[in-house]
Amino acid sequence: MTTTDSPPAVPAPAPARPRRRRSTGDTERGFSRTFRWITTGAGALILATLAAVALFLVARAFPAVTASPTELADAVPRYPDDTSFIAYVGPLVFGTLLAAVLALLLATPVAMGIALFISHYAPRRLAQVLGYLVDLLAAIPSVVYGLWGIAVLAPAAAPVWGWLNDYLGWFPLFAGEASPTARTLATVAVVLAVMILPIITAVSREVFLQTPRLHEEAALALGATRWEMVRTAVLPFGRSGVISAAMLGLGRALGETMAVLMILSPGFLYSFKVFQAAQHQTIAAYIALDFPEASGLAVNALIATGLALFVITLAVNMAARAVVARRKDFSGAN
Protein backbone atom coordinates (compact mmCIF):
# COMPACT_ATOMS: atom_id res chain seq x y z
CA MET A 1 0.00 0.00 0.00
CA THR A 2 1.43 3.28 -1.08
CA THR A 3 1.20 6.52 0.92
CA THR A 4 1.06 10.04 -0.49
CA ASP A 5 3.22 12.62 1.20
CA SER A 6 1.12 15.63 2.25
CA PRO A 7 2.48 19.01 1.31
CA PRO A 8 4.24 20.88 4.05
CA ALA A 9 2.04 23.15 6.08
CA VAL A 10 2.44 26.81 5.32
CA PRO A 11 2.79 28.78 8.53
CA ALA A 12 0.04 31.32 9.06
CA PRO A 13 1.15 34.92 8.76
CA ALA A 14 1.80 36.62 12.03
CA PRO A 15 -0.95 39.02 13.02
CA ALA A 16 -0.08 42.66 12.40
CA ARG A 17 0.88 44.54 15.51
CA PRO A 18 -1.62 47.26 16.23
CA ARG A 19 -0.28 50.79 15.70
CA ARG A 20 0.13 52.61 18.95
CA ARG A 21 -1.79 55.80 18.95
CA ARG A 22 -0.46 58.79 20.70
CA SER A 23 -2.58 59.66 23.65
CA THR A 24 -4.09 63.06 24.16
CA GLY A 25 -1.75 63.63 27.06
CA ASP A 26 1.34 63.01 24.89
CA THR A 27 0.06 65.46 22.28
CA GLU A 28 -0.67 68.11 24.87
CA ARG A 29 2.76 67.63 26.41
CA GLY A 30 4.36 68.02 22.99
CA PHE A 31 2.43 71.21 22.33
CA SER A 32 3.30 72.50 25.78
CA ARG A 33 7.00 71.81 25.22
CA THR A 34 6.93 73.50 21.82
CA PHE A 35 5.08 76.52 23.17
CA ARG A 36 7.53 76.80 26.06
CA TRP A 37 10.48 76.87 23.67
CA ILE A 38 8.78 79.45 21.45
CA THR A 39 8.01 81.76 24.35
CA THR A 40 11.52 81.33 25.76
CA GLY A 41 12.99 82.18 22.38
CA ALA A 42 10.75 85.24 22.07
CA GLY A 43 11.84 86.49 25.49
CA ALA A 44 15.50 85.90 24.67
CA LEU A 45 15.05 87.71 21.36
CA ILE A 46 13.63 90.76 23.12
CA LEU A 47 16.56 90.83 25.55
CA ALA A 48 19.04 90.39 22.72
CA THR A 49 17.42 93.21 20.74
CA LEU A 50 17.50 95.52 23.76
CA ALA A 51 21.14 94.68 24.40
CA ALA A 52 22.01 95.25 20.74
CA VAL A 53 20.33 98.66 20.76
CA ALA A 54 22.14 99.63 23.95
CA LEU A 55 25.52 98.50 22.58
CA PHE A 56 24.92 100.39 19.33
CA LEU A 57 24.04 103.59 21.17
CA VAL A 58 27.02 103.34 23.51
CA ALA A 59 29.47 102.57 20.70
CA ARG A 60 28.25 105.37 18.43
CA ALA A 61 27.90 107.89 21.28
CA PHE A 62 31.39 107.31 22.69
CA PRO A 63 33.21 109.61 20.21
CA ALA A 64 30.91 112.52 21.04
CA VAL A 65 31.10 112.00 24.80
CA THR A 66 34.91 111.89 24.73
CA ALA A 67 35.41 114.71 22.20
CA SER A 68 36.68 118.09 23.30
CA PRO A 69 34.39 121.13 23.38
CA THR A 70 36.31 122.66 20.47
CA GLU A 71 35.75 119.62 18.26
CA LEU A 72 32.05 119.53 19.14
CA ALA A 73 31.64 123.26 18.48
CA ASP A 74 33.15 122.82 15.01
CA ALA A 75 30.96 119.83 14.14
CA VAL A 76 27.62 120.46 15.87
CA PRO A 77 25.43 123.43 14.87
CA ARG A 78 24.45 125.83 17.68
CA TYR A 79 26.96 124.20 20.03
CA PRO A 80 28.24 126.79 22.54
CA ASP A 81 31.98 127.18 22.96
CA ASP A 82 33.79 125.81 26.02
CA THR A 83 30.82 123.62 27.01
CA SER A 84 31.03 119.92 27.78
CA PHE A 85 28.69 117.55 26.06
CA ILE A 86 26.93 116.70 29.34
CA ALA A 87 26.20 120.39 29.89
CA TYR A 88 24.92 120.66 26.31
CA VAL A 89 22.52 117.72 26.70
CA GLY A 90 21.26 118.96 30.08
CA PRO A 91 18.68 121.48 28.75
CA LEU A 92 17.36 118.87 26.31
CA VAL A 93 16.84 116.39 29.14
CA PHE A 94 15.19 119.11 31.23
CA GLY A 95 12.79 120.08 28.44
CA THR A 96 11.91 116.45 27.72
CA LEU A 97 11.13 115.67 31.34
CA LEU A 98 9.21 118.91 31.91
CA ALA A 99 6.97 118.40 28.87
CA ALA A 100 6.29 114.76 29.74
CA VAL A 101 5.55 115.44 33.42
CA LEU A 102 3.18 118.31 32.59
CA ALA A 103 1.37 116.11 30.08
CA LEU A 104 1.11 113.34 32.65
CA LEU A 105 -0.29 115.70 35.29
CA LEU A 106 -2.91 116.93 32.84
CA ALA A 107 -3.89 113.54 31.42
CA THR A 108 -3.96 111.24 34.45
CA PRO A 109 -6.89 112.80 36.38
CA VAL A 110 -8.97 113.10 33.20
CA ALA A 111 -8.15 109.53 32.18
CA MET A 112 -9.09 108.19 35.62
CA GLY A 113 -12.39 110.06 35.51
CA ILE A 114 -13.22 108.69 32.06
CA ALA A 115 -12.22 105.17 33.09
CA LEU A 116 -14.39 105.28 36.23
CA PHE A 117 -17.33 106.68 34.30
CA ILE A 118 -17.08 103.92 31.69
CA SER A 119 -16.61 101.13 34.22
CA HIS A 120 -18.99 102.10 37.03
CA TYR A 121 -21.34 104.92 36.06
CA ALA A 122 -22.27 104.94 32.38
CA PRO A 123 -24.99 102.70 30.92
CA ARG A 124 -23.66 99.75 28.96
CA ARG A 125 -24.36 101.14 25.49
CA LEU A 126 -22.95 104.55 26.31
CA ALA A 127 -19.90 102.93 27.91
CA GLN A 128 -19.22 100.88 24.77
CA VAL A 129 -19.49 103.92 22.49
CA LEU A 130 -17.39 106.12 24.76
CA GLY A 131 -14.74 103.42 25.17
CA TYR A 132 -14.56 103.01 21.40
CA LEU A 133 -14.15 106.76 20.88
CA VAL A 134 -11.40 107.00 23.48
CA ASP A 135 -9.55 104.05 21.96
CA LEU A 136 -9.87 105.70 18.56
CA LEU A 137 -7.70 108.57 19.77
CA ALA A 138 -4.73 106.18 19.93
CA ALA A 139 -5.05 105.46 16.20
CA ILE A 140 -4.60 109.10 15.15
CA PRO A 141 -1.07 109.74 13.77
CA SER A 142 1.11 112.13 15.72
CA VAL A 143 1.53 114.42 12.70
CA VAL A 144 -2.25 114.98 12.76
CA TYR A 145 -2.00 115.98 16.40
CA GLY A 146 0.77 118.38 15.42
CA LEU A 147 -1.38 119.98 12.73
CA TRP A 148 -4.28 120.24 15.16
CA GLY A 149 -2.02 121.83 17.75
CA ILE A 150 -0.77 124.48 15.31
CA ALA A 151 -4.03 125.28 13.52
CA VAL A 152 -6.61 124.89 16.31
CA LEU A 153 -5.18 124.59 19.79
CA ALA A 154 -2.47 127.28 19.66
CA PRO A 155 -4.78 130.11 18.49
CA ALA A 156 -7.40 129.07 21.05
CA ALA A 157 -4.88 128.73 23.87
CA ALA A 158 -3.04 132.02 23.29
CA PRO A 159 -5.60 134.21 25.16
CA VAL A 160 -5.85 131.61 27.94
CA TRP A 161 -2.08 131.54 28.42
CA GLY A 162 -2.07 135.36 28.40
CA TRP A 163 -4.78 135.52 31.07
CA LEU A 164 -2.91 133.04 33.28
CA ASN A 165 0.28 134.99 32.78
CA ASP A 166 -1.39 138.27 33.76
CA TYR A 167 -3.12 137.04 36.90
CA LEU A 168 -0.93 134.13 38.03
CA GLY A 169 2.45 135.33 36.82
CA TRP A 170 3.85 135.08 40.35
CA PHE A 171 3.83 131.28 39.93
CA PRO A 172 7.05 130.07 38.21
CA LEU A 173 5.26 128.03 35.53
CA PHE A 174 3.12 131.04 34.53
CA ALA A 175 5.91 133.64 34.68
CA GLY A 176 7.55 135.34 31.71
CA GLU A 177 5.99 137.04 28.74
CA ALA A 178 3.34 134.84 27.12
CA SER A 179 3.98 134.19 23.44
CA PRO A 180 1.22 135.53 21.13
CA THR A 181 1.61 132.47 18.87
CA ALA A 182 1.34 130.01 21.81
CA ARG A 183 4.05 127.81 20.25
CA THR A 184 5.31 127.07 23.74
CA LEU A 185 5.81 124.13 26.05
CA ALA A 186 2.36 124.64 27.60
CA THR A 187 0.68 123.99 24.25
CA VAL A 188 2.94 120.99 23.67
CA ALA A 189 2.00 119.60 27.09
CA VAL A 190 -1.72 119.83 26.26
CA VAL A 191 -1.20 118.03 22.94
CA LEU A 192 0.87 115.31 24.60
CA ALA A 193 -1.81 114.94 27.27
CA VAL A 194 -4.42 114.29 24.59
CA MET A 195 -2.10 111.78 22.92
CA ILE A 196 -1.47 109.73 26.06
CA LEU A 197 -5.06 109.97 27.29
CA PRO A 198 -6.31 106.80 25.50
CA ILE A 199 -3.40 104.72 26.84
CA ILE A 200 -4.00 105.64 30.47
CA THR A 201 -7.77 105.39 30.08
CA ALA A 202 -7.74 101.94 28.47
CA VAL A 203 -5.44 100.36 31.06
CA SER A 204 -7.18 102.03 34.02
CA ARG A 205 -10.60 100.97 32.74
CA GLU A 206 -9.57 97.31 32.52
CA VAL A 207 -8.06 97.42 36.01
CA PHE A 208 -11.19 99.02 37.51
CA LEU A 209 -13.36 96.37 35.86
CA GLN A 210 -11.31 93.66 37.60
CA THR A 211 -12.31 94.88 41.06
CA PRO A 212 -13.85 91.91 42.92
CA ARG A 213 -17.60 92.13 42.84
CA LEU A 214 -17.83 91.07 46.47
CA HIS A 215 -15.77 94.09 47.55
CA GLU A 216 -18.12 96.45 45.77
CA GLU A 217 -21.25 94.75 47.07
CA ALA A 218 -19.87 94.69 50.60
CA ALA A 219 -19.26 98.44 50.51
CA LEU A 220 -22.75 99.10 49.18
CA ALA A 221 -24.28 96.74 51.77
CA LEU A 222 -22.64 98.76 54.55
CA GLY A 223 -24.48 101.86 53.33
CA ALA A 224 -21.78 103.42 51.16
CA THR A 225 -22.79 105.63 48.27
CA ARG A 226 -21.55 104.94 44.74
CA TRP A 227 -18.65 107.36 45.14
CA GLU A 228 -17.75 105.99 48.58
CA MET A 229 -17.73 102.48 47.10
CA VAL A 230 -15.40 103.66 44.34
CA ARG A 231 -13.16 105.45 46.83
CA THR A 232 -12.92 102.60 49.33
CA ALA A 233 -12.98 99.52 47.04
CA VAL A 234 -12.20 100.36 43.41
CA LEU A 235 -9.43 102.94 43.71
CA PRO A 236 -7.31 101.05 46.28
CA PHE A 237 -7.61 97.88 44.20
CA GLY A 238 -6.57 99.64 40.98
CA ARG A 239 -3.87 101.92 42.39
CA SER A 240 -0.91 100.02 40.98
CA GLY A 241 -2.70 99.51 37.70
CA VAL A 242 -3.21 103.25 37.37
CA ILE A 243 0.48 103.78 38.13
CA SER A 244 1.38 101.31 35.40
CA ALA A 245 -0.94 103.09 32.97
CA ALA A 246 0.57 106.46 33.86
CA MET A 247 4.09 105.14 33.29
CA LEU A 248 3.07 103.79 29.88
CA GLY A 249 1.71 107.21 29.00
CA LEU A 250 4.86 108.86 30.32
CA GLY A 251 6.97 106.66 28.07
CA ARG A 252 4.87 107.74 25.07
CA ALA A 253 5.22 111.41 26.02
CA LEU A 254 8.99 111.14 26.49
CA GLY A 255 9.55 109.76 23.00
CA GLU A 256 7.01 111.83 21.04
CA THR A 257 8.64 113.59 18.09
CA MET A 258 6.51 115.01 15.29
CA ALA A 259 3.88 116.83 17.33
CA VAL A 260 6.55 118.51 19.46
CA LEU A 261 8.67 119.35 16.43
CA MET A 262 5.76 121.00 14.62
CA ILE A 263 4.47 123.05 17.56
CA LEU A 264 7.37 124.03 19.80
CA SER A 265 9.55 127.08 19.22
CA PRO A 266 12.89 125.60 20.37
CA GLY A 267 15.37 126.92 22.89
CA PHE A 268 18.19 125.53 25.05
CA LEU A 269 17.49 126.91 28.52
CA TYR A 270 16.74 125.64 32.00
CA SER A 271 13.44 127.46 32.35
CA PHE A 272 10.09 126.85 34.00
CA LYS A 273 8.39 129.56 31.90
CA VAL A 274 6.10 127.31 29.90
CA PHE A 275 4.20 130.23 28.31
CA GLN A 276 7.31 131.82 26.81
CA ALA A 277 8.69 130.82 23.40
CA ALA A 278 12.30 129.80 22.60
CA GLN A 279 12.86 128.32 26.06
CA HIS A 280 12.72 124.54 25.72
CA GLN A 281 13.48 121.65 23.40
CA THR A 282 13.00 117.89 23.72
CA ILE A 283 15.51 115.21 22.79
CA ALA A 284 13.34 113.49 20.20
CA ALA A 285 12.44 116.74 18.43
CA TYR A 286 16.08 117.86 18.48
CA ILE A 287 17.23 114.63 16.83
CA ALA A 288 14.53 114.80 14.17
CA LEU A 289 15.35 118.44 13.42
CA ASP A 290 19.13 118.11 13.04
CA PHE A 291 19.70 114.55 11.85
CA PRO A 292 18.99 115.08 8.09
CA GLU A 293 21.88 117.54 7.76
CA ALA A 294 24.27 115.99 10.29
CA SER A 295 27.49 114.22 9.41
CA GLY A 296 30.59 112.95 11.14
CA LEU A 297 30.86 113.88 14.78
CA ALA A 298 27.46 115.62 14.66
CA VAL A 299 25.81 112.24 14.04
CA ASN A 300 27.61 110.80 17.06
CA ALA A 301 26.37 113.74 19.15
CA LEU A 302 22.78 113.10 18.09
CA ILE A 303 23.11 109.40 18.90
CA ALA A 304 24.52 110.37 22.30
CA THR A 305 21.39 112.43 22.98
CA GLY A 306 19.37 109.39 21.91
CA LEU A 307 21.30 107.35 24.46
CA ALA A 308 20.25 109.83 27.15
CA LEU A 309 16.61 109.38 26.13
CA PHE A 310 17.07 105.59 26.16
CA VAL A 311 18.43 105.72 29.72
CA ILE A 312 15.58 107.98 30.88
CA THR A 313 12.93 105.70 29.39
CA LEU A 314 14.57 102.61 30.87
CA ALA A 315 14.75 104.23 34.30
CA VAL A 316 11.08 105.25 34.15
CA ASN A 317 9.97 101.72 33.26
CA MET A 318 12.15 100.15 35.95
CA ALA A 319 10.73 102.53 38.54
CA ALA A 320 7.19 101.69 37.43
CA ARG A 321 7.85 97.96 37.68
CA ALA A 322 9.27 98.44 41.18
CA VAL A 323 6.14 100.30 42.30
CA VAL A 324 3.82 97.71 40.78
CA ALA A 325 5.77 94.79 42.24
CA ARG A 326 5.59 96.32 45.72
CA ARG A 327 1.79 96.39 45.68
CA LYS A 328 0.89 93.58 43.28
CA ASP A 329 -0.59 91.45 46.07
CA PHE A 330 -3.04 94.19 47.00
CA SER A 331 -4.21 95.42 43.61
CA GLY A 332 -5.41 94.39 40.20
CA ALA A 333 -2.26 95.40 38.35
CA ASN A 334 -1.14 91.83 37.71
UniProtKB/TrEMBL annotation:
ABC transmembrane type-1 domain mapped to chain residues: 93-320
Keywords in alphabetical order, please: Cell membrane, Membrane, Phosphate transport, Transmembrane, Transmembrane helix, Transport
Q: Does the keyword Cell membrane apply?
A: yes
Q: Which PROSITE patterns match?
A: ABC_TM1
**Which Gene Ontology BP annotations are present?**
phosphate ion transport
Stretches the record annotates as Disordered: 1-28
Q: Which GO terms describe its cellular component?
A: plasma membrane
**Which topology term describes how it sits in the membrane?**
Multi-pass membrane protein
TM ranges are 42-65, 85-118, 130-161, 181-203, 253-272, 297-320
The protein's GO terms of the molecular function aspect are: phosphate transmembrane transporter activity
Where does it reside? Cell membrane
State the source organism's domain of life: Bacteria
Family stated for the protein in its record:
Belongs to the binding-protein-dependent transport system permease family. CysTW subfamily.
What job does this protein perform? Part of the binding-protein-dependent transport system for phosphate; probably responsible for the translocation of the substrate across the membrane.
User: What is the name of the protein in this document?
Assistant: Phosphate transport system permease protein
- List the source organism: Promicromonospora citrea
Q: Which gene encodes it?
A: pstC
